Amino acid sequence: MLIDHPLLGLRDSSEFIYRGDAKLLYRPNWKSKNSKTKFIDYGYLRKNPAGVHKELWYHEQGDRSWLVVTRNTVTHEILKVELARDTKGKLK
Amino acid sequence: MRNSSHPITNKQKLSFTFNGKKYFGYKGDTLASALIANNVKIVGRSFKYHRPRGIFSAGSEEPNALVELGDGPYKEPNTRATNIELFDGLESSSQNFLGSVNFDFMAINDLLKNFIGAGFYYKTFMWPRRFWEKLYEPIIRRAAGLGKLSLQADPSQYDKGYLHCDFLIIGSGISGLMSALLLAETGGEVLIVEEDFILGGRLNAETSVINGNQSSVWIGQAVKKLKSLKNVRILKRTTVFAAFDHGIFAAIEKKTDHIVEKSSKPRQINWKIYTKLCILASGAIERSIVFPQNDRPGIMLAGSVRTYANRFGAYYGQKIAIYTNNDDGWRTADDLKNMGLEINAVIDTRKEIEALSSSIPSYLGQTITKTYGRKGIKAIKLSSGSKLNVDCLAVSGGWSSNIHLTCHKRGKPVWDDNFKNFLSGGNGQKDKIIPVGAARGVFEIQNIISDTNRVILSLIKKICLSMPNRITLSCSKEQYRCALDLVSSSDPSNSFIDLQNDVTQKDIELSFKEGFKSVEHLKRYSTLGMATDQGKTSNILGLASMAKLKGTNISEVGTTIFRPPYVPVAISAFAGRSRGKDFRPTRLTPSHNAASKRNAVFVETGNWLRAQWFPEKGEKFWRQSVDREVIQTRNSVGICDVTTLGKIDIQGKDCSEFLNFVYTNAFAKLPINRVRYGLMLREDGVAYDDGTTARLGENHFIMTTTTANAPLVLRNLEFVRQCLLPNLDVHLISTTDSWAQYSVAGPNSRRLLQKFVDKPTDITNENFPFMACRELTICGGIMARLFRISFSGELAYEIAVPTQYGNALFDALLSEGQEFNAVPYGTEALGVMRIEKGHPAGNEINGQTTAQNLGLSRMISKKADSIGNILSERESFNGPNIATLSGFKPVQHSQKLEAGSHLISEGKKPTMENDEGWLSSVAFSPTLGHYIGLGFIERGGDRIGERVFAVNLLQNKITEVEIVSPHFIDPEGIKQRG
Amino acid sequence: MAKLVLKIEKPLNGYSKVVNKLKIDEYQFDSLISLAIPLKRERKCKLNFKKSLGEPMPNIENSIINKSGILGFRIGIDFLFVCNPSHSSFTKKTVPLLKQAFYITDQTGGWCGVRVEGDRVIEMLERICPLNLSQKIFAIGDVKRTIMDHLNVIIFRETEKKFILFSPSSSSGSFIKSIEISSRNI
């Protein structure tokens, strides 16, 4: 598969490492109420949608950027690719 | 038999062997065409019933003619004779027989046919269960057969490669070449891939006239034009075998298979092709008709009989009958007749048509009810009762568009009732694969020309490139109509559907009766279409048969989809050059040459080769070397290459905040020129990695990681930097390869290093105490870094220089160290010393242990957030009963310890319930003179002096051990601080 | 005591071979440093880069060569390399100047350079390089980082048929072997 890197264009998936659900971007506040429950949810619980999914990919053999890839898990179509550092704070 | 006036006979004569017998053919032959020309009738035995089989087709759809090529380690089983380009000296043989191919002992299975139908294995061999593996399976495997592997390593080379284009054109028939000509004019990069060793596709097998000439003239012109264009590339002998996401295709190129001499070049290349669009000009594949005894040698696809005659001048027989349900069968009759062959009959299942040729005896609306001739067809019987003598029966059940690749991404084919054919129903990805020509279900040449123009030009228009002119070609007019008469009505157990897997019409009936009616069930229960040919010539027959049984039509029965690979591909081609030692790259440490010079024994740690120990003269066992290295280091000074530890350069204004977050312990207040030990957890609270981090400046740190985790830690730190804390000014660079780093350990280490350090730098204990570090110069100005850290527990340093000085420094440390009896030591001695000192390493931080287990819970700062901080508080990780890192020594000092042993209290049985911990690392301690171990045991800290049993059930060993402090030597740390 | 001298060893000891008409040479350099752009300091870095090297700071996947032959290329949003083949004042003058804006990391020993040149260089690279090497996509002066034969490689196009490849020094033996095999195999 090919990932359309927002800075570098189409690059082969062999340059990337897959990390999974992009919810990992939203780490709970350690001081919040029930922080332990929230961290367990953060660490262990994943949605596994048949359809559009936001996931993290790391361009390890390229520019070392972490990307948020919006991908349809059924058709494998990639709908959007963003730098993780840019998406941070934009959506929650 | 060979037509002696065919142009192929003017070409180079080639000799080859088949089943040990020598034959001749010509350059331009396939193995199949040469065998036919030499009147070889039987080429193999069928899979299950061992029935004699002959060549059936002329392409990669071949179900019967699977042969073994080559000899010894070069032997290659299961190749299709129809795809093998003949070369001088080719050795080939039949497979799947016992005895000889003409008299096969396993043919007894044929008589047992009634007992071994569909589902036979499922039903028969399930009981008794234990018989399956030992008895039934080996027998079945031997009987059911394909070729045999040589069981030797394949000495041929294979390679991989990457190709990029805008337009990938699969197939070089008329629609492929037209597409290439049109698309090349857009200026885009065009890649034409052709499975055959000549271009032209189906045209090579036909007598079509284009622009008033033989089609070969037009092919020649088109190819010449394409070859002259810079943006066109042509790969012959290359089969696209898989379609993947986002316009990626896999193709296998036979690079030197057809070359006589064993080449130094790779045999095959596995290409990964990236394209914006794929034009599928893969043509169509002819299918058979189901009738009794329809698998005899000499019964062939009609289009293939025509191919052998037109392209190779090779005839299987001289008295030929054609059995067809469509117009194309008549074309074979015409072509063969024009060559002077005797056409006994055209039997057309269709009643309502008129004979398409007046000079040939025709039997309309009839079927074949019986055939004769076990080792080669002799006669056929028609439904009218008349019997005709023939020596070749050409069968045409119509043509199926070759749409395999459109299915690879789950595109479901759709039925076209006009031509009785499945068409691409989209390919799961928008417009990436565009069929043209026969692959698109367009069969008559005049329509292929106009349709290809239309499809490609509208495509070009859509992607807004400059418009080329349409290609105008005049040609002979063709007509193709097809009926769906595919299935016989009598003798179902002898009417074959899938020739390669020996699936008969009776098997389909059985599947139906037993409820396996859906196509997916039918396929798996009867094995229809599951052989190496994926049912290219037979799937439609099975579907038609099921449709008839269900009283419906094929479009309602549906179809299974094809999967990669389109043709079988050798495993070696997937490995490419990544074999043996080249499976992965090898990383060498900077001192590799210096260590080799000193006879080091190397060990693989990940991709690294590290010196494991340095045997000296007279040392026979590894322990002798390792013990000596430990003692010499502890007595004086030893040098070990520790470059492989990950080194990460961390710079930025917010480094210390970043480090506070990734480590459990605080780094913000670490003074410049000091080192601190740090522990990392995973977010789930489990210990992840440890190492020392040195502060070289206000905004500059050097982190070290374990060897194994180096790339992973960097990946995770980048994750924190970019995904969790993107507003911090932090930059991470791996400098593992940039610095050669050596441990210099032992009481004389300081004196040795003082010889290297440039003045006025002072490394005495007062000015450079334990856990100090600094940047300095050595040997008159060479930049270096010195760290006062100790893994061995001795007075020790790690010195780092830029890698290009590494080998020289290692040599110099040893030669300058001679006066102290300095010794190089390897990873074994390193391991022994760290166990003696009680430092945890990979065996202890193995992804199952926590800071609490390691006795490091006080390192988790509760003042600030850090990775894993919260979940390290979970109940199961805490409490009085958790296992903690402890030392162990055998009560009988002579006894050996085994890593992995479980710890059980006295009087308890060695069961899971009584398991109190385990030994993680053991070593013989030359310092103490007996075995020692590190491990984890419940409440370890409170049980010093207690005796338990180390149980190793795998080796049936039980050793009584005493729980001791994990710090076997110098627990107060006096030496390392000295 | 005699003064200790440490001899420099290049990763490939000055390798130079012609394989199948392809010229393969170790590309040697005096120093190779990486520059990291501090957070939100791109502008300051651009000015500094121009002042230090006399050429504008390149965009991502582009490069510059200044009049002293120093090569600078950018492979990340905040990350560049500067390679000095042989200019004498680089370490004493240029690096301290760059340090005023960038975070500098010396990586001279970390990388091995190989220059490959020849009519069939693209065919050779096709065997290991997943990137599209068409000049429309990968122009002269472009630089990309990718994976070749399991190795991390930075590839820089000098001319149509001449490239410099950088790969980690510890695996330089596997790297040169991979290039040799690719050259032999075409």
In short:
Chain A is of the alpha+beta class and 92 residues long. Chain A contains 2 helices and 6 strands. Chain A is globular.
CATH class category of the largest domain in chain B: Alpha Beta
Rounded average pLDDT of chain B:
92
- Estimated share of beta-strand residues of chain B: 25-35%
Largest interchain contact: B-C, 62 and 50 residues
> Sheet bearing the most strands of chain C, described?
6 strands, antiparallel
Annotation, overall tally of beta strands of chain C:
11
CATH class group of the largest domain in chain C: Alpha Beta
The fraction of residues in strands of chain C falls at 25-35%
Name the average pLDDT of chain C. Answer: 96
Write out the CATH superfamily name of the largest domain in chain C: Probable tRNA modification gtpase trme, domain 1
User: Which CATH architecture of the largest domain in chain B?
Assistant: 3-Layer(bba) Sandwich
Number of helices of chain B: 22
Uncertain runs of chain C with pLDDT below 50, 5 residues or more? none
Number of beta strands of chain B: 50
Radius of gyration of chain B: 38 Å
**Largest sheet strand order of chain C:** 1-2-8-11-10-9
Which tags fit this structure?
heterotrimer; B: 978 residues; alpha+beta; Ubiquitin-like (UB roll); FAD/NAD(P)-binding domain; 7 domains; seven-stranded mixed sheet; six-stranded mixed sheet; elongated; C: 186 residues; Gyrase A, domain 2; Alpha-Beta Plaits; six-stranded antiparallel sheet; five-stranded antiparallel sheet; 4 helices; 22% helix; globular
